[in-house]
Design brief:
185 residues, 17-stranded antiparallel beta sheet, 0% helix
């Protein structure tokens, strides 16, 4: 059991050579962060909680979220997936508080690479992302029931370049710029 009054740190658990070893609890009282889990000098596997009810459960490396883990924000949004140096990085699944869903790649905490985003209504996008925006080839379905679709290229979140729309079983080809159709093909 260690208490550091200067930095308001409390550790409850076994120590070996002055470092946490095995199961233990670590509290950073001033920051409102609490850790519980398996230690070998640093936390390896455990739970990180905050005063605002944010929770992370998963793997750690050098006291940072690293490996596979689940993160829940106070609003109920849940991220399940890969972490690297405290950042969402790699393959993941996100369920937002309003039941929107994202499954795909993340880089530096942003959607990046291939992903599928589903809104709670009848809309869905599957394609490429760059820095959290649709970018590259992708298919956007406005209405799954009536199959209203745009299939084509995106740039910074807007339809850009050659694409095709399908509505009422009719295909229409065109060229888009900044999200607006500028030419029929």
């Amino acid at each position: 059991f260690i208490i550091n009054k200067k930095y308001k740190i409390v550790y409850e658990g076994y120590l070996e050579d002055g470092f946490p070893k095995g199961y233990g609890k670590y509290s950073l009282l001033e920051e409102g962060k609490f850790y519980e889990g398996i230690w070998d000098k640093n936390l390896l596997l455990g739970i990180e909680t905050w005063k605002d009810s944010t929770v992370y459960v998963g793997e750690f490396k050098n006291n940072k979220k690293n490996g596979i883990g689940m993160y829940r924000w106070p609003d109920g949004t849940i991220y399940s997936g890969e972490w690297k140096n405290d950042t969402m990085e790699g393959y993941c699944y996100i369920r937002y508080e309003d039941n929107r869903k994202y499954e795909g790649q993340m880089m530096n905490g942003l959607k990046h690479g291939y992903g599928e985003f589903t809104w709670k209504s009848t809309r869905k996008y599957f394609g490429h992302y760059l820095n959290d925006l649709k970018d590259g080839f992708g298919i956007y379905i406005w209405n799954i029931k009536t199959f209203e679709v745009y299939s084509g290229f995106w740039n910074k979140g807007k339809m850009e370049g050659i694409g095709m729309t399908i509505k009422d079983d009719r295909k229409r080809y065109g060229k888009w710029s900044r999200g607006e159709k500028i030419e029929k093909i």
